[in-house]
Structure formats: C-alpha cells, structure tokens
Amino acid sequence: MNTLNFPTLIELPKIIDSRGNLSVVENNKEIPFDIRRVYWLYEVPTGELRGGHAHTDLQQVLIAIHGSLKIIVDDGKNRQTFTLNKPNQGLYIGNNIWREMSDFSDGAVCLVLASKPYDPAGYIRNYNDFVDKQKTTKI
Ligand code: TYD
Question: Is residue 53 annotated as part of the catalytic site, yes or no?
C-alpha cells in the first residue's frame, strides 16, 4: 500500500461494554501496513521530549492507550500539532516525517505500531539535514 502524504488521524473501533471497552487493530485494515514491530513509551517524566527525528522508510501508527501527549509532525514544509488522548484513535505517520513528542500526561502510555524492524540507519536525527533532504527529494 502506498504511504499517505501527511500524518492523519485514524479512528479505531471502540467496542463499548459495561464490563469495559475494547479497541482492536488488524494489519491492512485499520492499520495501512503489515505490523512488524510494536513498542511503547511509558513512565515519561514531566516535561520530557521524545522523538526528534524522521525515518526514511518506516510507517508508524501511534496510539495513546493511556493518558495524553502532543506530537508535532513536519514534512520539511508544513508543520502540525496533534493531541493524542483517546485509546481508540491512532496517528498514522509515513516516511520522511519529522516528529517531536511532548506534554506526556502523568502515566501516559504511547503504543507505536511500526512497519519494519528497528534499524538505526533509517533515522535522520538532525532537523536541518532533514529539511535539506526533503528539498532535494521533493522537486
Ligand atoms: P528512539 O527511537 O531514539 O526513541 P524516541 O524516538 O522515542 O525518543 O530510541 C530510544 C532508544 O531505544 C535507542 O537507544 C534505540 C532503542 N530502540 C530499540 O532498541 N528498538 C526500537 O524499536 C526502538 C524504537 C528504540
């Protein structure tokens, strides 16, 4: 499946039940790729930042499964801030998007579903390098 151009929110199923609610995702259904890796951010101290990088070839969906956080996404030209605060909502982020995560609430847990195994070589960790690369690849 082609990557979408800019990050977008995905509404996930919420199966409401008096015993407690349930949300679910499946490959190539709610998630527009095959999930190859899952990790989660948690116990983030107040005021800490995460992210601060882009990935050249990685799709991800981020879900605040508990609490809330803010995510700045940036394609080198446009920048947008999303707040994630629902366990039944995900933020899809495709290739070559700079992201910065902040404002984690106390106890927040951010689940990340990723399309590839961990590869440190696929990171761009310098914002100016990222913007330069975007200028040369998107003419
Ligand atoms: P990093 O991706 O820089 O975290 P964030 O973007 O959330 O700030 O990763 C932090 C550390 O964790 C780094 O040492 C690499 C390691 N790590 C793995 O070993 N596997 C993974 O899948 C991820 C995402 C990180």
Answer: yes
